[in-house]
Amino acid sequence: MLRILGVIGDKWSILVVGTLRDRTLRFGELHRAVTGISQRMLTLTLRQLERDGLLTRTVHASVPPRVEYTLTELGSTLLTAATALGDWAAAHRNEIENNRRHYDEAHPPRARR
Amino acid sequence: MLRILGVIGDKWSILVVGTLRDRTLRFGELHRAVTGISQRMLTLTLRQLERDGLLTRTVHASVPPRVEYTLTELGSTLLTAATALGDWAAAHRNEIENNRRHYDEAHPPRARR
DNA sequence: CGGAATCCCGCTTGATACTG
DNA sequence: CAGTATCAAGCGGGATTCCG
């Protein structure tokens, strides 16, 4: 079970899958769309997702090379399930941030003695 | 958003929350219930969850000390959302493992040259 | 353009020992 | 029992370079 949920344990995976929600994208487009991801991590993430069958990788033999990534049916179903968590996060964002503030006020960092 | 989803990005968090689904547990009980977690990580995880308001920490002044952890209402709602993902993982577990096998067969590890 | 390979630093985590 | 403190190690991941 953990091996499966590892799919989403990696934060980049959900972001990449989410970015491909309703359109096929090239490597470079994904790189620009998913802000903050390095080329290395994008490559590794895409390999994982392809291996799991969540997306397909299509190479068009041309110059310059053109590689497109498209969400599979399976990938779409994951997105549906993950959306529940995304909605939860959005709905409780303020509440959680308030909780953190209160906690931090009540539990100040240990002072130097 | 990422700061919020970080709640579940840490694999121990979901396991701990899930373990507290329907019962209050003491530190030691959690330690035994969540197999593989170190004392250190359990402590850190519990602090995070408490800070976010997903569970409450109750100290009973007695000898020996007795500290109980209980899921909050907020924690329960997270569990509900997370369950959607858990169900997805369970439902597609075989499919994904098949995909991985096929991928690994088609993409053997690079041989030494 | 889309990667693969290498180097390497830092953060996370485990192991261990100590304490209220 | 339920932690905290400390240290060392492993590896995740960024930066860089090179290739088809």
Description:
The structure is a homodimer of 113-residue chains. Chain A is an alpha+beta fold. Helices cover 64% and strands 12% of the residues of chain A. A three-stranded antiparallel β-sheet of chain A has the order 1-3-2. In chain A, helix 2 (11-19) crosses helix 4. The N and C termini of chain A lie far apart (46 Å). The model of chain A has no long low-confidence stretch (mean pLDDT 91). Chain A binds chain B through residues 1-2, 4-9, 11, 14, 50-53, 74, 77-78, 80-82, 84-90, 92-93, 95-96, 99-100, 103-104, and chain B through 1-2, 4-9, 11, 14, 50-53, 74, 77-78, 80-82, 84-90, 92-93, 95-96, 99-100, 103-104. Chain A binds a DNA duplex (20 and 20 nucleotides) through residues 26-28, 31, 38-41, 43-44, 59, 63-67. Chains A, B: GO terms for molecular function: DNA binding. Chains A, B: It comes from Streptomyces mobaraensis (Streptoverticillium mobaraense). Chains A, B: Residues 1-97 form the HTH hxlR-type domain. Chains A, B: This is Helix-turn-helix transcriptional regulator.
